[in-house]
Amino acid sequence: MKLIHLTDLHLVPPGAMLFGFDPADRLRETINRINRDHADAELCVVTGDLTDEGDAAAYDLLRDVLQELRVPTRLLLGNHDHRGHFIKAFPDEPCDENGFVQSVHESSAGRLIFLDTLVEGFGHGSLTDGRLEWLLARLDEVQDSPVYLFAHHQLQPIGLPHFEPWNTENWHQIMQAIVAVGNVRHIFHGHVHVDVGGSWRGIPFSASRGVAHQIIPHFTRRDADFVEDAPAFDVALIDDDGVLVHRFEVSDRNVVAVSEAGPLLGGTQ
Ligand SMILES: [Fe+2]
């Protein structure tokens, strides 16, 4: 299965700007690139911070811009989002029985689980108020099958002091429970605006710096420098044997300088 992972769009209402740029333009450029090179993807998952301040007009704009994307999408909420405004703009996005934007998608590679870590009015994440119980029930339903998780907030440490106040508050409890069930093969998340991947007690994870502004990672400082780098997105290739995550940036650097033919097998590259 080919899957697109987008994150942190931070759209603002039409006519407004964010840090001097228009996040919708960056999303349009990204969509053009996906349509050109990856229209065969099975699904595109956007892991939250769909908008910067949760404005209803920004969700309406997002709905309009996403009309251009040729890949089916699933949308998650981040700490910059507003659950009510989102549900009003996207009434067909499924919710769990408690009204959280959590759902399951049975893909050709296995079960995908979309989590809602938003705590409205705060920057940190959480899977409280029945959300963790919902996740564990969905994992238990397919104990012997591979599962892939999607969340806005990181569910594991990422080694950057800046994000410590903005972690998922019950992350350790969540990760211990996930490890105990044993069927999660990868966690895709957003929130951190840096390129990062790794594993926690054997559970792999990945996040890209996202479509909007990015952060220069510092490993000792608590403050952060925000920069406008090229928008980025991930393409995941998933099969029975594993998960590959390729990172793409949307920039002129992707213009081909030379095309080189090579052997299909046994090459030296
Ligand atoms: Fe964000």
Q: Are there runs of 5+ residues with pLDDT below 50, and where?
A: none
CATH class: Alpha Beta
Helix/strand class: alpha/beta
Domain module tally: 1
Helix amount? 10-25%
Across the major sheet, the strand order is 4-5-6-7-9-8
Strand content: 15-25%
What is the average per-residue confidence, as pLDDT, rounded to a whole number? Answer: 95
Largest beta-sheet characterization: 6 strands, mixed
Query: CATH topology, which one?
Result: Purple Acid Phosphatase, chain A, domain 2
> Any guess at the CATH architecture?
4-Layer Sandwich
Total strands: the figure is 13
The gist of it:
The protein is of the alpha/beta class and 269 residues long. The protein contains five helices and 13 strands. It has a single domain (2-254), classed as 4-Layer Sandwich (Purple Acid Phosphatase, chain A, domain 2), CATH 3.60.21.10.
Keywords:
binds fe (ii) ion, five-stranded mixed β-sheet, 13 strands, 269 residues, six-stranded mixed β-sheet, Purple Acid Phosphatase, chain A, domain 2, alpha/beta
Tell me what the structure shows.
- Helix 2 links the parallel strand 2 and strand 3.
- The longest helix is centred in the first third of the chain and has 15 residues.
- Helix 2 packs across helix 3 and helix 4 packs parallel to helix 5.
- It contains 5 helices and 13 strands.
- It has one domain: 4-Layer Sandwich (Purple Acid Phosphatase, chain A, domain 2), CATH 3.60.21.
- It has a 6-stranded mixed β-sheet, with helices on one face. A 5-stranded mixed β-sheet has the order 3-2-1-12-13, with no helix packed on it. A two-stranded antiparallel sheet has the order 10-11.
- It is an alpha/beta fold and 269 residues long.
- The chain starts with a strand and ends in a 20-residue tail after the last strand.
- It is globular.
- The structure holds fe (ii) ion (FE2).
- Fe (ii) ion binds next to loops.
- The site of fe (ii) ion has 7 residues, from loops.
